[in-house]
Amino acid sequence: MRRQPNANHHNGKIVEESNHPPAPSPLNKSWGKMTHQERQAYPVPDDREDLSQKAGLFGLVGIAWLGMAFGTWKLIFLNTIWIGKCAYCMDADGSIWWGLLTPVANFGAFFPAMLAILYWWWSENPTPQWRRSEMFGWLFAATLFAPFWFMLSWIAFDLHTWVEGVLHISNNYQFEDPNIYWTFAWIAIPAVGGLAILPLYFSWKALLYGLQPAPPLADIQAPEEGAKGGEEESGQTTEEEPEKWWE
Which of 23, 35, 183, 213 has a 20 to 30 A CA-CA distance from 81? Predict the structure, then answer.
């Protein structure tokens, strides 16, 4: 017996149901939570060779740039001037505040090398364009803004002074009773330390695993299908798509 197509009655008319699967819906998942099959559903630009060339170019430039930065920007001085000092000690000379330039100088020195690593990663791991844009944006937050906020919190709130005071390593505030550090440390260290570390945690998590929900496949495929339809209407023929390099 021949199977009849599914049908529903609507206003006295028979409307056949489509056996085609529904249009793709938003995943509402970040890149890190998507399965391998879900990741493969998104189109990836066929630019592996171009990415490899950029990775090599920025790698060479990054090494030369880093050597120049170490020689002229006093990176060693900026990365050590704040160690073992505090902002509000009795004998503070204010030199610890030079530490605020540490994350800025480090970012400027390592940025070309970080771009090289990013391009290399994209060349070896198929990554759709929307995920590349997310990673590139969070690269600035993870390597510049979050480290600057951490250093600002470290210096402005004297985190190391409270930690050393609790452990009886030093008494920078010259309290008569070092146990006074415990009076405020149980609040200051977790609260301020958490505020200092949270931007670093979330920015690196977004860079490595993603926080932005994946866009709907329909929004990405619609422009491509529209472009193909325009070529067909104009009578132009397209060559058969080559095999994808990531498959």
Answer: 183
Q: For the range 104-107, what are the long-range contacts, defined as Cβ-Cβ under 8 Å and sequence gap of 24 or more?
A: 104/144, 104/148, 105/69, 105/73, 105/75, 105/78, 106/75, 106/78, 106/79, 106/143, 106/147, 107/143, 107/144, 107/147
Residue 74 has pLDDT above 80, yes or no: yes
Secondary structure of residue 7 in the 3-state scheme: strand
Burial class (CB in 10 A: 0-12, 13-18, 19+), 206: buried
22-31, 101-110, 221-230: which range is least confident on average? 221-230
Tell me the C-alpha distance between 8 and 18, whole Å: 11
pLDDT more than 70, % of the chain: 78
Report the length, in residues, of the chain: 247
How many angstroms separate the CA atoms of 195 and 189, rounded?
10
